[in-house]
Amino acid sequence: MLTCRDVAERADQVIDVVQDVGPWDRIQFRLHLLICPNCRRFVSQFEQTVRIVGGRSWLEHHSDAEEQIVEKFRAISVAK
Ligand SMILES: [Zn+2]
């Protein structure tokens, strides 16, 4: 079973379909979301952000921004 930390670290890989995450990883990720409201909230915020900025291709050209976003969401998930 994934921990909340695992979910935070993998969120960008699982949400972004460009990245080839194995089906088992994806299932474990979704299973964790079923039992963990904190991570559900975290991932839904993350998905909204990815949608707003247009996905990873945007982030690749703004690596500083990506780090800031990840750090921000990590802080949110730890604070809850
Ligand atoms: Zn969790």
Q: What is the C-alpha radius of gyration, as a whole number of Å?
A: 12 Å
In terms of structural class, how would the helical and strand content be classed?
mainly alpha
Shape field: globular
Average predicted confidence as pLDDT? 78
**How is the biggest beta sheet arranged?**
none
Strand content range? under 5%
Bound molecules: zinc ion
Unreliably modeled segments: none
Give a structural overview.
It is a single chain. The chain has 80 residues and is mainly alpha-helical. It has one domain. It is built from five helices and no strands. It has helices at 4-15, 23-35, 37-53, 56-60, 63-79. Helix 1 (4-15) runs parallel beside helix 3 (37-53) and helix 2 packs across helix 3. The longest helix has 17 residues, at 37-53. Bound molecules: zinc ion. Zinc ion binds at residues 4, 7, 32, 36, 38-39. Zinc ion (ZN) is lined by residues 4, 7, 32, 36, 38-39.
SSE layout:
Elements: H1 4-15, H2 23-35, H3 37-53, H4 56-60, H5 63-79
Bound molecules: zinc ion.
Zinc ion binds at residues 4, 7, 32, 36, 38-39.
